[in-house]
Structure of Cytochrome P450:
Amino acid sequence: MDLNALLSEEGRVDPPALYARLHHEGVAVPVDGGAQGFAVAVHGFDAVAQVLKDPRFRQLDAAYLDLHTPQWRRHPALRVLRDSMFFTDGPAHDGVRQIIGRAFTARRVSALEHAVTGLTERLLDRLAQLAADGPVEFMGEFAYLLPSSVMAELLGVPQEDLAWFRPRVLAIGAILELDGANWRNMVRADTAARELSAYFTDLVGKRRSEPRDDLVSLLAATDLSDDALVANLITTFNAGFVTTTHLLGNGLTMLLERPQLRAELNAHNVGSYVDEMLRFEPPVQILVRYAPEDAEIEGVPCPAGQAVLVMIGAANRDPARFTDPDAFDPARPDPGSLSFGFGPHYCLGAALSRLEGQVAFPALFERFPKLALAQQPGNVAKPLILRGHDTLTVACHGG
Ligand code: HEM
């Protein structure tokens, strides 16, 4: 595969067209020229799941950066990411994941349902007010605010601080893109990482002296090191809403472009709708792993130190796994996807983000039955790791 094809304007506008071509070439292909240290792209559904659970393939951890970016410790953003469970494997990862996983038990998540419903209603009230003056920017006024408010509730971050977070979270997200770690983005991400670290260090201090029933208090009472504590708070907080924000924006567009399916959406079938939205247009299209030792994937060699493009967005369109994979069909007989990953790093927030989608979509259409796109989002080139709309203007007509 030519990595440039994926990174090109055309590839970023319509990745499924490229995915369809890849599916004609087996389940994994060499990346031409080993561009950017990538040796293999894996895109078949089963092969992707296999790589994600195979301990021979690791996250781009500190050992990987020592090899490819020896100066990385000078960058606060890279240090924060590497101190978090996202970029560690093995026992170190499992221990932290177990501690943080306690916050995401089914019981805790279902206890949040009430809060999710209340926050949704409040945001819809605000949308209604804004709509009196004309079209509304859905991403900023709803898709960002719902998941970030839910995360704030879960972690114990004051709601009034959320506006401060958004640019900082976006700055860290930018360096995770395939070609995003350029100098300009790194400078911004480093500043954001310094500010977010200071913010969470302060919050941890406050919760240590006055614990509350929130995730920060729970983690502050564990024996996690301060660096690991702050790094995991920053990354979990960010992961908790950048992705769900895109689920809400991508999902809304899918519904508004399909009036028949939108008319059939109700509180009973919304679970299948949300799962199909996640399959069809996953907020995270690509994961990355590397091989510390020489390895191979379905016959394609991955030399030691080289990275793998793990294409979950393509796996979700694998014709060997899904009938008519390019059709958006909430009633499909073969549901499922790899949109939350697979194996030891499987998303801890899967149940929570599904819940948010399941509450938000029916509530949105109940409040604004004639909700419509005020402007076509258009076929614009978008990032691949975190994929969604920057802005989405809608007309919130009432009944
Ligand atoms: C639609 C929304 C979401 C999507 C598409 C999504 C996607 C993912 C994916 C693909 C991974 C695997 C990363 C990898 O294997 O490298 C992951 C991991 C993770 N996600 Fe999510 N996520 C979503 C929402 C959330 C929410 C709401 C939270 C927190 C409340 C969250 C917290 C996490 C954490 C902590 C991990 C790391 C787990 C680990 O490394 O063991 N995510 N997510």
